[in-house]
Amino acid sequence: MDRTNQNELDKLRRIVLEQDNSAKLLIRRDLELTRANEKLRELDQAKSNFISIVAHQLRTPLSGVKWTLNMVLSDNFGSLTTEQKSFLMKCYESNERMIMLINDMLGADRIDSDKLKYNFVPTQIFDLMDNVLFELTALVKKNKLRVNFINKERTLPRVLMDNEKMRAAVQNLLENAIKYTPEGGEVSIDFQVLDEFLRVSITDTGIGIPDEDQKNIFNRFFRAKNAIKVETDGSGLGLYIAKGIIEKHGGKIWFESKVGKGSIFYFTIPISP
After folding, report:
1. Do the beta carbons of residue 140 and residue 178 sit within 8 Å?
2. Rounded CA separation 100/234 (Å)
3. Are strands 262-270 and 146-149 parallel, antiparallel or unpaired?
4. Is 204:186 a contact under the CB 8 Å cutoff?
5. What is the pLDDT along the chain (273 residues), one digit of tens a residue?
6. Domains by residue range for the chain, with CATH
7. Are 218 and 176 in contact (CB under 8 A)?
8. CA angle 102-50-103, nearest 5°?
């Protein structure tokens, strides 16, 4: 074998050796990634189990506290002075915030782990939103707001949705609009048919969302800076949960907002065939 052929052969051997080493490295990296992914899945499952256990252990006594406070505030154990009622109402509201926080944590975890089961049925979403608003009457009155449906008399098509899940999404959106709208402001709800979807818009004259915060507004635990100043309590999970539920319905959610002017949150949901 002449020197030229020997050089070519040596070169080929080096290439084969390099490829062999590269293949071994890729296999090793693949195994490491597989083990890391398995570890992440185990950690994620452990996190879900922890949240479920803690939430259950907390929610049970908190529900008992809520029931007891309701009984006391209803004068079932005797009359209360105005000062006593005021103090107990603050306890009741704090207890409600704790229950809401636990429910939000459970809701976010179920969305992350895809544990929520959906039962899509033809439903009139106007009725659902009207019922949610009725439940928020006390908050609306407290803030002295005007809340109205635009074109209320219009007949809307039914949409395919899971009533319980969509109720949670709608409640988060409406609560935000009401909580972050100053006294004397307005919240309005409108519907528009867009091809195979119904678009719902919730408009408020609230504090708005700063430009620098808008890209993160649907992230877990995120709250805009000006929102924290207005409402110190809050999980920062409401919009994250609403987005997850709406997208699971095959819809989309987005918004327009200006600080000091207010926000419009839109979402779409498929119309029932």
Report:
1. yes
2. 9
3. unpaired
4. yes
5. 566 666 666 677 777 677 767 767 777 777 777 777 777 666 666 666 666 666 667 777 888 888 888 888 888 878 888 888 888 888 887 877 777 777 777 777 777 777 778 899 999 999 999 999 998 888 899 889 999 998 776 688 999 999 999 999 999 999 999 999 999 999 999 999 998 999 999 999 999 999 999 999 999 888 898 888 877 677 788 899 999 999 999 999 999 999 999 999 999 999 998
6. 1-115 (1.10.287), 121-270 (3.30.565.10)
7. no
8. 15
Which two three-digit tokens encode residue 197? 């979807």
CA dihedral 241, 244, 249, 252 (to 10 degrees): 110
- The structure tokens 């809307």 sit at 156
- Give yes or no for a contact between 116 and 168, defined as CB atoms under 8 angstroms apart: no
For residue 2 the two structure tokens come to 């002449």
Tokens at 196, concatenated: 């195979």
CA distance 31 to 253: 39
